[in-house]
Amino acid sequence: MAHTYTSITFHIVFSTKGRVFAISEPSKLWAYMAGVAKNIHYQPFAIGGIGNHVHTLIGVPAIVSAAEAVQKLKSNFSRWLREQGRWPGWPERYGAFSVSSSNIDSVRHYIQNQAEHHRRQTYEEEFLSFLNRSGATFNEQDVFD
């Protein structure tokens, strides 16, 4: 019998619509998100962010694309956030960056220290930095609307 072994880890970043600070109780959302990830058979290494965006570091099965992972996470998170109060939603865009096993601890630390990090850098600056460092092809005028 043939066996397939994979290790696929994504650092996924997405903001609230209009990048408004609409996540009022981030720690509750992060805990909920970790539960959702586990329920859909993803491995949540870290979930964090601040009131206008989310970072997830997740391991996914080989058959799950980054687009599918983002869609499942956003839809489940939206349901919970709507139940908590006024919710503007998520824009369609996101960033998904592959992470090697040797860098999981470093990315986890980065995600767990978002509040401190964002005292020095805006979400927009952070996201453009990720795009540049990853080598993604993009037009800066199209990244944010």
The outline comes out as: globular
Sequence of secondary-structure elements: EHEEHEHHHH
Mean pLDDT: 90
Number of helices: 6
- Tell me about the biggest sheet? 4 strands, antiparallel
- The secondary-structure class comes to alpha+beta
Residue share in helix: 40-55%
Rounded to the nearest angstrom, the radius of gyration is: 15 Å
Span of the ends, CA to CA: 51 Å
Low-confidence stretches: none
Q: Spatial order of the strands in the main sheet? A: 2-3-1-4
User: What percentage of the residues does DSSP assign to strands (E)?
Assistant: 15-25%
Assembly annotation: single chain
- The number of distinct β-strands equals 4
What is the fold's blueprint, element by element?
Elements: E1 8-15, H1 26-39, E2 43-50, E3 53-60, H2 66-84, E4 95-98, H3 104-112, H4 114-117, H5 123-134, H6 140-143
Antiparallel strand pairs: 1-3, 1-4, 2-3
Helix pairs in contact: 1-2
Brief characterization of the structure:
By secondary structure, this protein is of the alpha+beta class. It has 6 helices and 4 strands, in the order E-H-E-E-H-E-H-H-H-H. The protein is 43% helix and 19% strand.
Summarize the structure in words.
The chain has 145 residues and is of the alpha+beta class. It is built from six helices and four strands, in the order βαββαβαααα. The protein has helices at 26-39, 66-84, 104-112, 114-117, 123-134, 140-143, and strands spanning 8-15, 43-50, 53-60, 95-98. A four-stranded antiparallel beta sheet has the order 2-3-1-4, sandwiched between helices. Helix 1 crosses helix 2. The protein is globular and about 50 Å long. The mean pLDDT is 90.
